[in-house]
Amino acid sequence: MKKVFHKIASFSLALVVLLSTVSFTVDSHYCGGILVDSSLFGHVETCGMEVHQQLPSSECDISIKDCCSDEEVIVEGQDTLKTSFDRLDKDQQLFATAFIYTYLNLFDGLDTSIVPFRDYAPPFLITDIQKLHETYLI
After folding, report:
1. Which of 45, 76, 82, 105 has its CA 20 to 30 A from that of 63?
2. Residue 124, class by beta-carbon neighbours within 10 Å (0-12 exposed, 13-18 middle, 19+ buried)?
3. For the whole model, what pTM was predicted?
4. What is d(CA 138, CA 125) in angstroms, rounded to the nearest whole number?
5. Are 78 and 20 within 8 A, CB to CB?
């Protein structure tokens, strides 16, 4: 149960970090106040009612009001996730370096090839002293 909870928590935290850093743009096209098309990744399709700008002529100078509008909503994600080591004050830098140094050296053990009593010979056993004196520890 603990492993399952740990995996779910890890996945959800990774998903939160991913979603907080993603930025996207939503384009929308309105025609007369009614939403015609909305797009997340590309350009929106128009309704075909846009006013075409005509060359100004001396005969007629009538301006037509455009009923269509385009709207663009930009959602920007977070750019910086990691605090720089330079922004920490002196005490925090000292604590971080000491913690990292001791944590890395915590798991350094002795090599298996090192035998501390390799250069010492065991004492010679001439007689069994316990049997000789008939003293046994019980």
Report:
1. 45
2. exposed
3. 0.41
4. 22
5. yes
Q: For the residues of 82-126, what is the DSSP string, one character each?
A: S--GGGS-HHHHHHHHHHHHHHHHHT----TT--TTTT-PPPP--
pLDDT at 79: 73
- Determine the 3-state secondary structure of 30 from DSSP: strand
Residues 130, 136 contacting (CB under 8 angstroms)? yes
Letter for the amino acid at 133?
H
Residues 30 and 44: their CA atoms lie apart, in Å, by: 10
- Give me the long-range contacts of 78-87 (CB less than 8 A, separation at least 24): 78/20, 78/21, 79/21, 81/17, 81/21
* Predicted confidence (pLDDT) per residue in 83-92, tens digit: 666 778 889 8
Burial 66-96 (b: 16+ CB within 10 A, else e): eeeeeeeeeeeeeeeeeeeeeeeeeeeeeee
